Amino acid sequence: MLTYIVRRILYSIPVLFFSTFLSFIFVSYAGNPLAQLKQNPRFSPQTIENMTHQLHLDMPVIQRYFLWLQDVFTHKLGNSLYTGQALWPQITRTMGHTAQFIIISEVLALILGISIGIYSAIRQYSVFDYVFTSISFLGFAMPTFWLALLLQIAFTDIFLHYNIRIFYTSGLNSLPGGPAWSWDRMQHLALPIATLCIISFALYSRYMRASMLDVINSDYVRTARAKGVSEWRVIMRHVFRNALIPITTVAALNFGALLGGAIVTETIFSLDGIGFFFIQSLATLDLYAVMAYLLITAIAVVVFNLIADIAYGFLDPRIRYD
Amino acid sequence: MHRRVWFLAAAVVAVLGLTGSAAAVTAGKSSSTAQSLHAAPFATAMANIPRTPAARAAKKTMVFGLEQTVTGFNLGNADQNAFYAAIVAGTPVIRGTYIINTKGKYLLDMASKVKATKKSLTIKIKKNANWNWLGHKPKPVTAADYIYTWKIITDPTSNVASAVGYSNIARAKAHGKKSVTFFWKKGQAFADYRDLFGYVYPGFALKGQKFNDYWHNCVCGNDGHPISNGPFYMSSYTQGQGMVLKKNPKWYGKKARLNSIAFKIITDTNSEIQAMRGGEVDAITPSPESALSTLVHQKNLVYSAVPSFTQEHWDIEVGPGGAPLLKKLYVRAAIARGMNRPSLIKALYGGIAPGLKPLNNTFYEFGSPAGGKFAYFKKYDFNPKKAIAGLKSHGCTGGPSSPDKNNSKVWTCGGQKTEFHFDTTTRQSRVQSSQIFKQQLMAIGIKINVGIHDPADFFGTILPNANFDIGEYAWIGGPDPSGFDAIYQCYNAAKNLGGSNYKRYCNKKVDKLIKKGEANFNSRKRTAQYQTAAKITSNEIAVIPLYAPPQIFVYKRALQGASKSNNPTSEGPTWNLQSWHWGS
User: Fold this and answer.
1) Which of A241, B58, B259, B530 sees the fewest Cβ atoms within 10 Å?
2) For B293-334, what is each residue's pLDDT tens digit?
């Protein structure tokens, strides 16, 4: 197993190198980040010259890529092209905010999705099954931004009609810099969490149901029933554990992808997360900030892929990695 | 297997819990340790500001929704020179010689007297103008601060947004602490002196700091403690979330009536609207979007829309990079007369800024100098019949005999078709206007082929290379017309003239008028010179001015003192923040 993990990590290095190189080239050729400063007719040409030189924009792209790579290791991802500020504190800050609401929404989605998936499979074709199948398809079909806007309008209208503040519609706290774990923070994160949870729940419940149905008709399950094992024990001990394997893989991959930032959700709810950071950086062509984001999310995807594989092998003793 | 599942589940929960806690704690730590220069912890600031509107009113505090993240608070720095930074760290915190009111009038602020001649600029600073640097005794604002400001802006290593005017100064002389004279370089007297020293840096408090590095996360001295010479100081700032201003008791003006203001960053316009409706914020200044119409008639809100100092316009390339036909005035006149500017404005902003009118002066955008007898561009108002008549009278053939919205015929003038490239950026209003004008011009036999470009490409390559036929974009202007000099001066790279004249318009008479106006300290004569230049550039259709996008300010009706706040200049709506207070 250890050999397998080391081998996977080593394989990831050229993948990361290649993906960052391509990203750097594409973003560099997207345009000149200093161009929009020229909208002020009095803008100082000397400043543009200074900044072009300071930001190495007068160097060939390949050379700039290796300067950036050097900064990644020697200066913790380097500085923002646009503001000159260190990127690492911004990445850790925004990643922390994203991780907070992603983790809560994923845990909720998993608990709900797995529970409902199990019951839907046990009570296949029942009213419960049909209702939650419909809800799942609705969850899949709903665009994230639409759901987010709908929730914002709904809870604002509730406040206007009943003067009851249930949840807030934007920001991390009522006021800048509030505590990370507080009732106020939870009231602000409730709607973004609900937005992501509904969509993830749809995914997990469908997977769980399908996986359960796949296992529930197996020979060994029939044997367990024939032996006189109670239905509860059959489901939880024999069916559920084996049906959990695909969900583990999907959840790990989904989490890795979401850690890259629920971009739409964060933008609509104005959450200071990594996805929002990425969008703002991309809009200003802040190359180094964009690269920092892409590198972090690429690593997250690789790591969670690896975790999914390891968990898969851990859960199913038939699978062994050399 | 049973144990493996539970073990794995427990491991996942533990890791997730640790990650979430550590990340959230790290996030808090990062914002406090990342920058050594920052203000007090936010928990303190937050504890003093209530969450509900009623409680905020009782505690004399409010929350302002800020639509953009702020990259810094050094208004002179190119990186941080943004409207939203000015709202927070401009007039509320750092004051200057003049302040510009909502009518574009310059009022003395930190100076008690200013005398400007062709030789020098003398500024007398108010006796009670002080710096409040927390943790230190108050220090007066002095001539040394003004001299420091001039030197740091003209330092070639400083990434300043603009050194125009400052670079015209040859030397400075302090007369005691409260008076300073700047001497112009020979032949470079700068008549737009009122735009100089709109903010003054506390040189003594910034020793050891580099211009490009300070005030990224605070408005503070070199020890990280807040500093201010305005009605408020910045007590705290959390990157990505917002900042809190507190009343400055040492300010020379009438003391602020609010104890504190929190600026909360809400970047999505729809979220801003919901936050305003739901009372999460007490005021916003959103960018103009049609969704804002939901706030226009809301009974507990006041909605204000005024034209900004931004000139949305068409540049028509008359240099070698553009179509030869565009060099002909009669073709440009036909284009101008084929465009129904009022209907475009109604389509774009009718729901959120009713009453917005087209711009009709190429140098002035606001107030009496822009309208009435100075509305020179009105002669080119929408008149498609006259447009067609003008083309016919110059021998053009093949076009429609009368305006026809289904027309497909294109004029041929002197062997060339009236078919041109039109380039603009991806901004939604421009994409819409390009389609509207395309139809209107096709109705009179002029075809435009629309090209939409990324702003970086448009401003970085297309415009500077003067490689376009017609381009739509906006210039950011101000009350003083000299801000547009570089747009109309004949392009001369060697003399650093006309650097923004991408359309390569050139009229020597206009150049002379601009040159005279730049150095004329008699405001009446100066205005006359610029108005003459405006008349010529309008007559010659150097540009087709479209409109000034509205500046919108929405606030709770109970918030008093904000009725005269919607300031379209660079001061922004917080220019009189000290007057705001909660009424009944």
Assistant:
1) B58
2) 999 988 889 999 999 999 999 999 999 889 999 999 999 999
Contact B241 A37 (CB under 8 A): no
Whether B487 and B311 have beta carbons less than 8 Å apart is answered as no
Per DSSP, the three-state class of B242 is strand
Q: Is the dihedral of CA B481, B487, B492, B494 positive or negative?
A: positive
pTM of the model: 0.87
Check: CB of residue A215 under 8 Å from CB of residue A242.
yes
Query: What's the ipTM?
Result: 0.85
B16·A107 Cβ contact <8 A: yes
Per residue in A128-159, pLDDT (tens digit) is 889 988 988 888 888 888 999 999 999 999 99
Nearest C-alpha neighbor of A175 from the set B547, B349, B411, B42 = B42
Amino acid at A312: Y
Those residues whose C-beta lies under 8 Å from the C-beta of residue B456, and which sit 6 or more positions away, are A30, A31, A32, A33, A35, A36, A285
Q: Are B194 and B165 in contact (CB under 8 A)?
A: no
Chain A residues in contact with B458 by the CB 8 A cut-off are: 35
Q: Provide the Cα torsion B131, B133, B135, B137; round to 10°.
A: -10
DSSP assignment string, A81-106: TTT--BHHHHHHHHHHHHHHHHHHHH
Helix (H, G, I), strand (E, B) or coil at B422: strand
3-state DSSP assignment of residue A187: helix
Query: Do the bridges between strand B310-316 and strand B543-547 make them parallel or antiparallel, or are there none, so unpaired?
Result: antiparallel
Count how many residues are written for chain A.
Answer: 322
Structure tokens at A102: 């992603």
Residues 259 through 288 of chain A touching chain B, CB cutoff 8 Å: 267-270, 272, 276-277, 280, 285
DSSP state of B226: B
